[in-house]
Amino acid sequence: MDRLLPSGHEDSDEAAEFRAMTERSLRQRKVGRIDTTIDTLRSVQRDKLELDFGQAQEFMIALTDARLVLADRLGLHTEEDAERLHDQTTRFLEGGADLSDVDETLALFYDFLTWLQESLANALITTGGRRRSR
After folding, report:
1. What is the tens place of the pLDDT at every residue in 41-68?
2. What's 78's DSSP letter?
3. pTM, full prediction
4. How far apart are the first and last CA of the chain?
5. How far apart, in whole angstroms, are the C-alpha atoms of residue 89 and residue 92?
6. Shortest CA distance to 92 belongs to which of 82, 79, 80, 103?
7. In terms of domain of life, where is this protein from (predicted)?
8. Among 34, 60, 90, 119, which one is most buried in terms of CB atoms within 10 A?
9. How far apart, in whole angstroms, are the C-alpha atoms of residue 48 and residue 96?
10. Is 49 left (phi over 0), alpha (psi -120 to 50) or beta?
11. Contacts for 126-129 with beta carbons within 8 Å, 24 or more apart?
12. Burial 34-72 (b: 16+ CB within 10 A, else e)
C-alpha cells in the first residue's frame, strides 16, 4: 500500500495527519479508475479498443497503479531487479519459463502491462492527444 498511497510527509505525525485527510478520497479515486478501466475493457468490440483522450489518461493511471502493485510484489526496486525481471521474461520467450511459478507469471504480466502502457503513451504522443487513441 505504501507504493500506491505513499506518505505525504517525512515527519510521521504530519504524514499521519495528511493520510487521515486524504486516504479515503484517494482510495475511492483509484478504485473508481480501476472500475472504469475494467468496464472500458469489457465494452471492446471486434478486438479494437478506442479511447478518447480522457479515457486514455485514466487508463494510463490505472496501468501505473497496477504496475506499482506488481513491482512491489516482485521486489522491483533497483536496476538489478529490473534486469532480473527482463531475464525472467526472456526465458519465457525462449520457452524456459515455469508458468506454475507465481513470480514468473507475475513478471510476464508486469512486462505485458509495461508494453501496453508504453504503446498507449506512444499513441497519445503520435496523435497529440487528439480525438481517439488506439
Report:
1. 888 888 888 888 888 888 999 999 999 9
2. S
3. 0.76
4. 31
5. 5
6. 103
7. Bacteria
8. 60
9. 31
10. beta
11. 129/53, 129/56
12. eeebeebeeeeeeeebebeeebbbbbbbbbebbbeebbe
